[in-house]
């Protein structure tokens, strides 16, 4: 499917990782149904969105509040924001608190419930409801091992820590999805109806400054909203609010941002990245380590291939292998091969 999409719409094909079959299928479907590249359609839609935003928001960035005309009720929204590193630590602390308050015991009770139903041949759909919520499914391997009584205390403790860490990871991933929803869908929908000025960002990064950074600004805006008095522009409430509104305005003014040609890292198996994301990625520790590992594996494979040629009587392969890597014959009659930053000893008996 991806090859076909590359023929019809190379721009869109570069956006998707080969494993993103659903997105590839949908893009290909649109191309075939409309007879047009889906990237062109999305670009036109974003251009139309930009015109709508300009019409609804008026003099954007001037500090004027533009009353929305498409909201069903008078609306005021607060986004209690926190710095990412601070938020991640809070989420970890939250999970630790849940563990202290009996999360493992609750997971054990749910496991026992499943066992009782299974004993009665009653099927429980574990793909819905509480069974797929964060907590039980991550702790299930530990509870299962604990109930079996066949796991050593050391391995059981290790499994427990791994499962608790999985709960923390899932919690942070869910938090990221919430932030993505706010920045993307919610904010964009508010833009469409000219109500982006009804979203206020309050910075809760420093809990010790809660009154000044969150409570008092929130109360002032709420009082003005309820009394019908002029409210401050959201970008004026806090420093982080100003930065977020500036970034949002820049994205609105770049209609083709999401459709630019993207790059994929085959070494790290990462999907299409923008030019900016690509440069950040290739400078990162993860990518550099992956490249080094790939180079070592390739070097080892080349050497082993030449050794196989040598074993088959192809002297040329043996000569090339010796030319590439220094070797020496030790007293035991073995050939020792050394590779840069990695040592590989091949035991070869010399006749």
Instruction: Quote the distance from N terminus to C terminus.
Output: 55 Å
Strand content: 5-15%
What is the level 1 CATH name of the largest domain?
Answer: Alpha Beta
Number of strand elements:
7
Instruction: Name the CATH homologous superfamily of the largest domain.
Output: P-loop containing nucleotide triphosphate hydrolases
Average of the residue pLDDT scores:
81
Q: Count of helical segments? A: 13
Estimate the global geometry from the Cα principal axes: extended
Percent of residues in helices: 55-70%
Question: Which structural class matches the secondary elements?
Answer: mainly alpha
How many domain regions? 2
Largest beta-sheet details:
3 strands, antiparallel
Outline the low-pLDDT stretches. 59-67, 326-351
The CATH architecture assignment of the largest domain turns out to be 3-Layer(aba) Sandwich
Order of helices and strands: HHHHEHHHHEHHEEHHHEEE
Computed CA radius of gyration, to the nearest angstrom: 29 Å
The name CATH uses for the topology of the largest domain is Rossmann fold
Main sheet: which strands, in order across?
5-6-7
Organism: Uncinocarpus reesii (strain UAMH 1704)
Protein name: tRNA dimethylallyltransferase
GO biological process, one term: tRNA modification
InterPro entries: Dimethylallyltransferase (IPR039657), Znf_C2H2_sf (IPR036236)
Give your account of this protein's structure:
The longest helix is centred in the middle third of the chain and has 40 residues. The chain has two domains: 192 residues, 3-Layer(aba) Sandwich (Rossmann fold), CATH 3.40.50; 60 residues, no CATH class. The C terminus is likely disordered. Helix content is 60%, strand content 8%. α6 crosses α7. The chain is mostly helical and 351 residues long. A hairpin with a 5-residue loop joins β5 and β6. The chain starts with a helix and ends in a 6-residue tail after the last strand.
């Amino acid at each position: 499917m991806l090859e076909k999409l590359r023929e019809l719409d190379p721009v869109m094909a570069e956006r998707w990782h080969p494993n993103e079959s659903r997105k590839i299928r949908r893009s290909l479907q649109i191309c075939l149904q409309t007879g047009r590249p889906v990237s062109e359609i999305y670009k036109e839609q974003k251009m139309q969105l930009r015109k709508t935003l300009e019409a609804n928001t008026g003099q954007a960035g001037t500090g004027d509040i533009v009353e929305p005309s498409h909201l069903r009720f008078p609306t005021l929204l607060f986004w209690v924001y926190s710095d990412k590193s601070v938020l991640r630590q809070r989420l970890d602390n939250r999970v630790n608190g849940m563990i202290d308050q009996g999360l493992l015991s609750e997971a054990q009770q749910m496991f026992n419930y499943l066992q009782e139903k299974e004993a009665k041949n009653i099927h429980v759909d574990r793909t819905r409801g509480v069974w797929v919520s964060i907590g039980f499914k991550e702790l299930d391997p530990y509870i299962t091992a604990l109930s079996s009584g066949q796991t050593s205390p050391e391995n059981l403790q290790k499994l427990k820590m791994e499962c608790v860490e999985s709960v923390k990871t899932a919690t942070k991933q869910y938090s990221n999805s919430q932030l993505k929803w706010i920045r993307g869908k919610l904010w964009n929908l508010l833009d469409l109806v000219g109500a982006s000025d009804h979203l206020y960002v309050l910075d809760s990064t420093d809990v010790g400054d809660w009154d000044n950074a969150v409570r008092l600004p929130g109360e002032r805006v709420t009082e003005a909203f309820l009394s019908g008095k002029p409210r401050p522009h959201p970008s004026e409430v806090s420093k982080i609010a100003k930065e977020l509104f500036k970034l949002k305005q820049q994205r609105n003014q770049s209609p083709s941002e999401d459709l630019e040609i993207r790059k994929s890292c085959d070494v790290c198996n990462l999907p299409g990245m923008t030019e900016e994301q690509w440069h950040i990625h290739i400078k990162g520790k993860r990518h550099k380590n992956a490249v080094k590992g790939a180079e070592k594996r390739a070097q080892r494979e080349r050497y082993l291939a030449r050794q196989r040629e040598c074993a088959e009587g192809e002297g040329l392969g043996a000569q090339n292998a010796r030319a590439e890597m220094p070797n020496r014959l030790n007293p035991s009659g073995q050939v020792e091969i050394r590779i840069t930053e990695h040592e590989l000893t091949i035991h070869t008996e010399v006749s």
